[in-house]
Design a protein that fits this description.
Largest interface: A-B, 66 and 56 residues
Oligomer: heterodimer
Distance between the termini of chain A: 68 Å
Structural class of chain B: alpha+beta
Strand order of the largest sheet of chain B: 1-3-4-5-2
Number of strands of chain A: 5
CATH architecture of one domain in chain B: Roll
CATH class of one domain in chain A: Alpha Beta
Structural class of chain A: alpha+beta
Radius of gyration of chain A: 21 Å
Number of strands of chain B: 5
Number of helices of chain A: 4
Amino acid sequence: MPGTYPNKMPAYHASNDDNTVHWPIQPQVYYEGVNEGDEIPAVDFNLTVQRMIMFVGATRNYPGLHHNDRVAQANGAERMFLQNNSCLMLWERVISDWMGIYGRVRSATFRITNFHLSGDIIHVGGKITKKWQENGLNFVELEMLSHTPRRVGMTGTVIVALPSTKYPTTTPMWDNDGKATVTCQ
Amino acid sequence: MTTEEAAPESGRAMRGDPNVTWEDTAKHIGEDYSGGIIMVADERVDKVMISRYCEPAEIGNLLYWDEEVARMAGYRSQVVPWAMLKEVPTYGGNWRPGQPTRFPLDKEMDWQSQLANRQPSAGGPPVPPTNAGFFTDMTIEFFEPVCLGDRLTTMGRVLHHVTPRETRVGVGAFIGYDTSYFNQLGQLVARATQGTYSFVRKDDSEIER
């Protein structure tokens, strides 16, 4: 119907080149507020086929093993399974949502022990196994575990540098030798 | 391949030198097998790359979503998730103008096209015969944060370890290579050791499931 279609964008939208949406900032974790033995909030991930395809697109990692049941089965898997970096993305979610905007990951070590198959619900959790200060930084070591419905699917540790309550808005930074380049303690 | 349960490539052709042992391979630890190739990422990190990465696992840390929050926390700009660093930028892309199609018409629907290259590689050390292999483990150390607009360079493929071992799926060795990642200012952003298990696969009847 002529004349009923919008032919001009409202001025507010036309001039709004900052399309950033602002969300509330998550609660911050501080070194002094955590203890060895503490568990960080776990997350259950439902690996629907649609989500598997999203993982493939996000990592631009396209071997058929990760999006095509026939290819996966021809290679010994029951059906399509997550690529190793996508398995690590599940840990990224759990850890990054916990450590807040002033936490930083220093290192991550992981080993995959079972396929993360489409249709699985993967339970990912972590526990603080060590807490220490070194080279001007405040560290915790997280022992991470991903459980598939069959058995443990991925194990490893992630070391996180946390801010202190003394410098609550200082993000830990370090040089090539791992020494703090900002005051964190 | 991703786990110990993964089967080898179809055909299970043996590759390697029967006159070489894993001990011989280990003598090459510390040698670089990148061929001196320095891979500069085709893509600078952009907002879409980061948000598409965060969506599947629903990663909500605002450093990855909100430039103002990232600057407030002391970063140059919106931050790249630590787990994303190694995977997303490509070197040569999945296709570029002037290149032949990656999907020839005579290929059947499950055919696998060779797409983006992500690691410099030029051969490897001498190894004994194997007919299977898969990814096993990785260690990544992080240094300078990677932010919006950064362009990463990947260098090195240095043999890090060779550990012979029999597992429930076969007999072979765990092998790891070191690779380093830099930003456009030449600052080290990460160093990764990626491990694989190369082996002679046991007969299916011998594999304990």
